[in-house]
């Protein structure tokens, strides 16, 4: 298995196509937003007609209001990878969501299933007293609370849910071990272009997204009946599109904030991937001839 990662805008999708064409591969999406239907422009989802006949998996598999955890991704991706391998082809995992890849390769602890009634009660508590869930988690599992930002309510809620359902600290459960991916040698390739060049590319891509109909796409999703509170609308670009629709930002401001948020997101991704064990860095953009040659050589060495 090849895992192709890196910050947004670094050319992962194009390099994945090149590797798939060279090694009879199929692409498994590892982007937490591209799993959702209708969210196309702002997620830089590659149109079907541009995929050059290479099969892509785990794209457009969910309605935008569906919940999809890293554990659910790992189970789905492992099943897809097994099918690809059984057909004698190469699974190429491609995307920038680090926790998804870690769940796929390293596994997650076997926590309890989601309890919606409990989540509803916790959500109401958080609405009444912002930050209260994190304070409760700190009492039940200070180690877990120390690793989760108080504003990251979904992660706080999940950790608290596990503590309450199992009556054990989530940290303790996590330390009992995880079911790592078996039967694969995994080559993790990370694209790391020059930061100034990356930021310039991201600014241009944001401008192109707005010019090509990002705001209209957001309006269409609302017209389909999906609420503004669904998770994909929290992402950079879409959030600013909603603010523009409501008159909270003008077009120039919406683009400015979307560009800044995107650059900050890329910076956080780079920080995450720098800590990823066993990652082989490719110092450039995915479509550069030298980078393609280097990646092909490393994959060839992997498969023999």
Explain this structure.
It is a single chain. The chain is α/β, with parallel strands linked by helices. It folds into 2 domains: 2-108 and 179-303, P-loop containing nucleotide triphosphate hydrolases (Rossmann fold, 3-Layer(aba) Sandwich); 116-175, Histone, subunit A (Orthogonal Bundle). It has 13 helices and 6 strands. The protein has helices spanning 12-23, 70-86, 98-106, 116-128, 132-140, 142-147, 153-166, 170-175, 195-211, 214-223, 238-245, 251-274, 289-303; strands spanning 2-5, 25-29, 56-57, 90-94, 187-191, 279-282. Strands 3-2-4-1-5-6 form a 6-stranded parallel sheet, with helices on both faces. It is globular, with a radius of gyration of 20 Å.
């Amino acid at each position: 298995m090849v895992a192709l990662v890196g910050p947004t805008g670094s050319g992962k999708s194009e390099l994945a196509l090149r590797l798939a064409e060279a090694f009879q591969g199929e692409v498994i999406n590892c982007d937490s937003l591209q799993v959702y239907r209708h969210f196309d422009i702002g997620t830089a989802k590659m149109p079907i007609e541009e995929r050059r006949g290479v099969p892509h998996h785990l794209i457009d598999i969910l309605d935008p209001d569906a919940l999809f955890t890293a554990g659910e991704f790992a189970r789905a991706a492992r099943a897809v990878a097994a099918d690809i391998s059984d057909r004698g082809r190469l699974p190429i995992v491609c995307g920038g969501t680090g926790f998804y890849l870690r769940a796929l390769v390293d596994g997650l602890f076997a926590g309890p299933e989601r309890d919606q009634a409990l989540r509803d009660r916790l959500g109401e508590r958080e609405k009444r007293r912002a930050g209260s869930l994190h304070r409760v988690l700190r009492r039940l599992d200070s180690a877990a609370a120390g690793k989760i930002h108080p504003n990251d309510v979904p992660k706080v809620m999940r950790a608290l849910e596990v503590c309450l359902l199992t009556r054990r600290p989530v940290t303790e459960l996590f330390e009992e071990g995880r079911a790592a991916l078996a039967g694969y040698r995994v080559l993790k390739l990370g694209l790391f272009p020059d930061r100034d060049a990356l930021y310039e590319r991201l600014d241009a891509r944001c401008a192109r997204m707005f010019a090509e109909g990002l705001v209209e796409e957001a309006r269409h999703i609302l017209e389909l009946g999906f609420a503004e509170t669904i998770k994909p609308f929290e992402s950079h670009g879409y959030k600013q599109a909603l603010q523009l629709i409501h008159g909270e930002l003008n077009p120039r401001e919406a683009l400015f904030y979307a560009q800044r948020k995107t650059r900050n997101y890329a910076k956080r991704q780079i920080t995450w991937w720098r800590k990823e064990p066993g990652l082989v860095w490719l110092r450039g953009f995915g479509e550069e001839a030298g980078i393609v040659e280097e990646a092909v050589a490393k994959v060839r060495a992997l498969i023999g």
